[in-house]
Amino acid sequence: GNSVTQMEGPVTLSEEAFLTINCTYTATGYPSLFWYVQYPGEGLQLLLKATKADDKGSNKGFEATYRKETTSFHLEKGSVQVSDSAVYFCALEREYGNKLVFGAGTILRVKS
Amino acid sequence: SAVISQKPSRDICQRGTSLTIQCQVDSQVTMMFWYRQQPGQSLTLIATANQGSEATYESGFVIDKFPISRPNLTFSTLTVSNMSPEDSSIYLCSVERPGAYTEAFFGQGTRLTVV
Questions:
Q1: CB-based contact (8 Å) between A102 and chain B?
Q2: Does B59 contact chain A (CB < 8 Å)?
Q3: pLDDT tens for each residue of chain A, 112 residues long
Q4: Is the four-CA dihedral B26, B7, B69, A32 of positive or negative sign?
Q5: How far is B54 from chain A (nearest CA, A)?
Q6: In whole angstroms, what is the distance from residue A100 CA to residue B40 CA?
């Protein structure tokens, strides 16, 4: 079946540190992949996406590359800010029409 | 983008009662989705609400427990019936982005606590 595995958190970093949150997936076919972010007290928002192998999604300094060979979609940012503190969810689109399968979520805490 | 309004934003309910959650979208959408986010866990799809037909439920979720209505292309409700403390979760409504099928938008969620 379809599943998403994320690294466990919480991840605690100092401001300007490099961030990696690992995400691997299991799926039939080639799903679209997403990172969603949930800031404190807010709803889930799409951060970035990639729809085919070798695509790189990017937004707000975050990047993730769709790696078919390793079935991975790791989230990276070169220099995190306190405002990046949130819960990050990796997800895949199970089938056409936005049926999403989410990972467990990773809490990121950035200290000033 | 799509703007999604959910009501109520939170509620505390007695066990054995039912709560209906409303989801209003600012544009017409074909499919609406209902998710549950249990404490400390990820989101799990409950069902897909289609206008003009019965909702499609995921494994582990049944219509008697989570009846869904979809009277038009901008509105849906999810009812959590005969609640128990295990139903304490955040319930989220989601829609696909009109005109593009690889982006989902989410409401802010309804935080339900059953006592």
A1: yes
A2: no
A3: 889 999 888 999 999 999 999 999 999 888 899 999 999 878 888 999 998 899 999 999 999 999 999 999 999 999 999 999 999 999 998 766 668 899 999 999 999 9
A4: positive
A5: 17
A6: 18
